[in-house]
Design a protein that fits this description.
mainly beta; Porin; 2 helices; elongated
Length: 164
């Protein structure tokens, strides 16, 4: 794990030229993609908003479908809604605006439903952390990669971002 983290830091540090926040103050970016999980492939959509220099807050909705063979072929669906806060290290590390390296915390509510007639479903609260980065191919479109834990994405997620 420490080699993966070191590789990510070196990869995103390679783009250092000028110091700029990746999202302009009082502007937003949208994010969408797929997650990494032992139980199905989660999909997500979210928005981040720059509230102060180098700090964003955001929200995210997610869904994951999977078949739990340990529970007698029980089809399960997980819906999630969460909020996050991230610190963007561009200015601190002198990374240009095409790159974005960030870390933060998230808090979410996840609703588990199942196809069998098990009593209820389950609602869970998840607190987690994330570290990630993205690269913008121009002014608006970028790809992102994030690792984290404590929420429905467990291992991380991959997708695209659009600055608005």
């Amino acid at each position: 794990m420490k080699y993966i983290l070191l590789s990510i830091i070196l990869f995103f540090s390679a783009g250092t030229i000028l110091a700029h926040c990746p999202i302009d103050l009082h502007r937003a970016q949208t994010n969408a993609g797929v997650g990494l999980s032992n139980w199905g492939i989660p999909v997500y959509f979210g928005v981040d908003y720059c509230v102060v220099r180098d700090l964003t807050i955001g929200g995210e909705a997610s869904m994951r479908l999977f078949n739990n063979t340990f529970a007698g072929n029980n089809n399960q669906t997980v819906f999630g809604i969460s909020g996050n806060g991230n610190y963007h290290f561009n200015r601190l590390l002198k990374i240009n605006k095409n790159w974005d390296f960030y870390a933060g915390l998230n808090l979410g509510l996840f609703l588990w439903n199942n196809s069998k007639n098990y009593p209820g479903g389950s609602t869970r609260l998840g607190l987690g952390g994330q570290i990630g980065g993205r690269y913008y191919f121009g002014k608006a479109f970028g790809l992102n990669l994030e690792f984290g834990g404590g929420n429905v994405f467990g291992g991380g997620k991959f997708g695209f971002s659009i600055r608005m």
